[in-house]
Design a protein that fits this description.
about 400 residues, 8-stranded parallel β-barrel, two-stranded antiparallel ribbon, 14 helices, binds D-allose, binds zinc ion, L-rhamnose isomerase activity, EC 5.3.1.14, manganese
Length: about 400
């Protein structure tokens, strides 16, 4: 590859920022069993300590998403300062309107106005927290939906949703955004109120430029062409964030890039082609405003190395996407050379980008091999020794 292109690829890779979720550092499990791990964080501060290790070794993960109330703390400005002292910044604030008894029949779409009020109050509280933490994004995922036909009125629920979203939207500051996540099913099994990107897009379009769609890669029907959704949303300036993870079946929340690295490459190629990667010729803006977040749970594998591995997987797919020879691809496409065009993509995908990423990391002052560096750091042993009584993510801390 020409010297100049290589420099460009490296600069884009060093500018990418991957956001890790606070809840991935804590214990988690399925509804059958939570296998507690020794040394997991007991407080949000300890989650940040762990996140700082991920950033130290990879050089590209300075942002940490919080979840309210799981990360509730007395003083959010002080928490942001604590993060800053460790080279981190607080990222998206994830609202939680799914874990209380009142939400059995929904939160912002609940037929009972008192429940809707309670849910909205929580969303407003999250906006207040964003003011204190300096977070840009409020991430909204609603578990709202129906288990049985006839259980509630589908259209009325959309109207209630729109009303709540509008109140939140109006509350946001000029540099704040809301990102609306969709999910096909679960916990509702008949109808979910935000089941797909079209529903999220329609609401965001009505709200305005500060509302964008969040694509969780595990939230689609099997076989869905996620890169098409990404390409479309980017083209409409409505792609706001990713929740990256892998799935074999449903919302498995496994490590991103573990189940289908080729799909991850295809998604990141569309991000690049649509101008979503800062520092590339395709990207007109210095910050195209796409948050590359992870949304994963590490139920049986050690958490910090799993998060490091996930960050590396996103980087590898991004590097391959950046290696696609756009000119050769355009020529092949223009001349109707089906196999040639496909070969351009596959050449990039089949490149071993690990040495290149090693160089990028070294230039960033991080480690050529983050997994080995973490294993040698002694942190895993220290937290097992020092932290006693870590709890399940989502219940306290
Ligand atoms: C739920 O399935 C969604 O993926 C959420 O994004 C997330 O896992 C949870 O709400 C944490 O914020
Ligand atoms: Zn998610
Ligand atoms: Zn999910």
């Amino acid at each position: 590859m020409a010297e100049q292109n290589l420099a460009l690829v490296k600069s884009a890779l060093s500018r990418q920022r991957i956001e890790t979720p606070s809840w991935a550092y804590g214990n988690s499990g399925t509804r059958f069993k939570v296998f507690a791990q020794a040394g997991v964080p007991r407080t949000v501060h300890e989650k940040l300590d762990d996140a700082a290790r991920v950033h130290q070794h990879t050089g590209v993960a300075p942002l940490v998403a919080l979840h309210i109330p799981w990360d509730r703390t007395e003083d959010y400005a002080a928490l942001a300062e604590y993060a800053g002292e460790r080279g981190l910044r607080l990222g998206a604030i994830n609202a939680n309107v799914f874990q209380e008894d009142e939400y059995k029949l929904g939160s912002v779409t609940n037929p009972d106005p008192a429940v809707r009020r309670k849910a909205l109050d929580h969303l407003m509280e999250c906006a207040d927290i964003m003011d204190a933490t300096g977070s840009r994004d409020l991430k909204l995922w609603f578990s709202d939906g129906l288990n049985y036909p006839g259980q509630d009125d589908l259209r009325a629920r959309q109207e209630r949703l729109a009303e709540a979203l509008w109140s939140v939207y109006e509350r946001l500051g000029p540099d704040q955004r809301l990102v609306l996540e969709y999910k096909l099913f679960e916990p509702a099994f008949y109808a979910t109120d935000v089941p797909d990107w079209g529903t999220s897009y329609a609401h965001c379009l009505k709200l305005g430029p500060k509302a964008r769609v969040c694509v969780d890669t595990g939230h689609h029907a099997p076989g869905t062409n996620i890169e098409f959704i990404v390409a479309f949303l980017l083209g409409e300036q409505k792609l706001g964030a990713f929740d990256f993870n892998s799935r074999f079946y449903a919302d498995d929340d496994l490590m991103v890039g573990a189940a289908d690295p080729f799909q991850l490459f295809r998604i990141l190629y569309e991000v690049r082609a649509g101008g979503g990667l800062p520092g590339t010729p395709e990207s007109a803006e210095s910050d195209p405003g796409i948050a590359f977040m992870l949304d994963q749970c590490h139920n049986i594998e050690p958490k910090i190395p799993a998060i490091i591995r996930s960050v590396m997987n996103v980087q590898e797919a991004t590097a391959k996407a950046l290696l696609v020879d756009r000119e050769a691809l355009r020529d092949a496409q223009q001349s109707g050379d089906v196999l040639g065009a496909n070969a351009v993509l596959m050449d990039a995908y089949n490149t071993d980008v690990r040495p290149l990423l090693g160089e990028v990391r070294e230039e960033l002052g991080a480690d050529r091999d983050p997994m080995a560096a973490y294993a040698a750091s002694g942190w895993a042993e220290a937290i097992v020794r020092d932290r006693v009584g870590g709890r399940q993510a989502g219940w306290g801390a």
